[in-house]
Amino acid sequence: MNWDEIIGQDDLKHQLIQSIEDHRIGHAMLFTGDEGYGVLPLVLAFCKEIFEKEHPSSGVRVSNLTHMDLHFSFPVFSQDGKSVSSAYRQDFSALVKKNPYFSFEDWTQELDSEKKQFQISVQEMDAITEKMTLKSYEGGHKILIVWRADKMNTEAANKFLKLLEEPPKNTIIILTAENAASILPTILSRTQIYEVPRIAESDIRTALLKHKEILDEDREVYIHQAQGNWNTVLKLLEYGSVDEEFGFYFVKWVRDAFMVKKKPQYLKEIIGWAADIAGGSREKQKKFLEYCSEMFRLALMQNYEAGALVYKTVGEKGFNWEKFSEYIHGSNIVSILEEISEANLQLIRNGNSRLIWTDMGIKLSRYIHKKP
After folding, report:
1. Fewer CB atoms < 10 Å away: N or C end of the chain?
2. How is residue 243 annotated by DSSP?
3. CA distances (Å), 283 to each of 108, 287, 311, 359, in order?
4. Residue 306 exposed, middle or buried by CB count within 10 Å (0-12, 13-18, 19+)
5. Global pTM value
6. Model confidence pLDDT, tens digit, residues 199-256
């Protein structure tokens, strides 16, 4: 990955390049942010720059992900009692080359294992520790990239902490995660943190100019829907919309929540809805929560006559967006968003998905009827 291939993030690029020039590279770093903001592309370009300073010809091997001193660790599912990423290195490398902005959900789909639990296990940490204690093949630095370090289980995290406390000579460890809050405080305290922000709309607009097939009016819709996430843009380019399925489930939830007050039998519908949502992968469930949160916020803006800021609505057939928006106001929006946030937290903590969705689904019927 070259610096000029990364969409936007110029300030962070400059900061990373300068740290190499000034010989201020930390032995442990954490890059936080949504994958679609460019977390992994930034990390790969950073690694390429480090290796090229030591051996100018090594850049090609980094780009091909064949550099012998560039190591990866990433979450996988357990198979036959084993849970080590080396068994899936080819699949991971292929996905990185295809789209370095890919999400965790894309990774689980790549292995056709969305419903399995992906984690970084203590077996993985044992294997990685053994690799990192070996001498560098090219005589310079060894770099370990732990992609989605927030997926480490507790035992693995404690083992990894020892590697951080006593890193082998000339070793650089780079972690990535959606946010710092999901990383153990003892690991956080030993890392230099880089927060990767969403990509600026102007940078996405510039990048989309290369796609001549997109109409000008569609380009602006893509920019708004992307919300700074280039992976979302790529999905929009491929599929046209990433919200169709989420829109269906959102509308069903809202309609059942409206009806349950007058017809309690709709409670059974909400329970069925919760079971359907819980059947998807945890990452997909979290994405749906993000979608719900986004749509409630947009409905609030619609209700308060800030329609110019509403960049998308629910396109489900027969759904009256304007009428629905009248029910979202200052007296219930905080409660609704808090419930969504709590549900997300419970999913992160591996709570029972079906119970989480049932509880949240029923609570909406209470909040949505609350008067302004």
Report:
1. C
2. -
3. 9, 6, 24, 19
4. exposed
5. 0.75
6. 999 999 999 888 776 766 677 778 887 889 999 888 887 766 657 788 899 999 999 9
